[in-house]
Amino acid sequence: MQPPKNKKSKSSRQTIIKILLLIGGLFVLITVGVGYFKKDLYTVMKVPDFQLTDQNNRHISNRDMLGKVYLVEFFYSSCPSICPIMNNNIRYIEERINCPDFGVISISIDPAHDTPEFLRLHAQRIGVKSPHWHFLTGDRAYIEKIADQFNIYIGDQSDESESLNHSGMLALVDKKGNIRCRYKKDGMPMLYYSGLNYQDPQGKTPKLNGEYHPDREFLIEDIKRLLQE
After folding, report:
1. Do the beta carbons of residue 154 and residue 167 sit within 8 Å?
2. HEC profile for 9-39?
3. Which residues contact 179 (CB under 8 A, 6 or more apart)?
4. Which of 95, 98, 140, 168 is the most exposed place for a label (fewest CB within 10 A)?
5. In the predicted model, what is the mean pLDDT of residues 26-37?
6. pLDDT of res. 10
7. Under a CB-based contact definition with an 8 Å cutoff, are residues 111 and 33 in contact?
8. pLDDT band at 38 (very low <50, low <70, confident <90, very high)
9. 43 strand-pairing partners
10. CA-based angle 77:191:195, to the nearest 5?
11. Interhelix angle for 214-227 vs 82-97, to 10°?
12. Which of 165, 102, 163 is nearest to 134 (CA)?
């Protein structure tokens, strides 16, 4: 007697289902695996070499910062727009971290005005208490070179209308002198964090008096993570 014809088709359907389940299981494993590994922070590059003078007339270099997690910003003390926002957001972060192994490097793009003495007054004015927050000044051409190596935009000194323009981005550096960042929702590395305020929780529309600071919260999380490494 021949077996019923539908027995073979039933077996084929079961095989197809098993294959589909296997493929689905592999997809889940890959997705979970990628998500797990991306909990780590991406290494952007080695921090560029720099050596400048801080508000206390001390020479500060990237080598002096080894062993510390720190932020790097480009700003100038008389800036009427985003610099106070950036300084305030960094001060908020510094107060929440409250750790001697965390520091800040704030490099002035207006060294003609921002002398060490003036930067010391600026630090006092905005309420900086940490001895590890260095406001740096030096030769403008050298500072432009450093900004270019950091891939953080500042204006061309030769263009008077452009020279004091600059990015609101911050670089996060680990204890070994590597620039690090988290991954975005699309799986791509952020590269740099924003020091600005926003009018929306997603951080899409900058606003000087905006009430949202998504990257500020990201930085607090990621700095704590790097301090544990």
Report:
1. yes
2. HHHHHHHHHHHHHHHHHHHHHHHHHHHHHCC
3. 43, 44, 45, 46, 47, 150, 171, 172, 173
4. 98
5. 42
6. 58
7. no
8. low
9. 180
10. 30
11. 40
12. 102
Radius of gyration for the alpha carbons in the chain, expressed in angstroms and rounded: 25
pLDDT of residue 208: 85
Query: Could you tell me which residues come within 8 angstroms of residue 202 by beta carbon, excluding any fewer than 6 positions away?
Result: 214
Mean pLDDT score, 86-104: 96
> Rounded CA gap, 126 and 105, in Å?
15
The number of angstroms, rounded, from the C-alpha of 136 to the middle of its chain's C-alpha atoms is 19
Encoded tokens for 56: 């206390």
pTM of the model: 0.81
Q: Can you give the pLDDT at residue 165?
A: 84
At 19, the amino acid letter reads: I
Residue by residue, DSSP assigns the chain as -PPPHHHHHHHHHHHHHHHHHHHHHHHHHHHHHHHHHTTSPEEEEEPPP-EEE-TTS-EEETTTTTTSEEEEEEE-TT-SSHHHHHHHHHHHHHHHH--TTEEEEEEES-TTT--HHHHHHHHHHTT---TTEEEEB--HHHHHHHHHHHT--B--TT-TTTTT-B--EEEEE-TTSEEEEPBPTTS-B--SEE-S-BSSTTS-SB-TT-SB-HHHHHHHHHHHHHHT-
Tally the C-alpha atoms within 13 A of residue 35's C-alpha that lie toward its C-beta. Answer: 7
Q: How far apart are CA 50 and CA 28, in angstroms?
A: 45
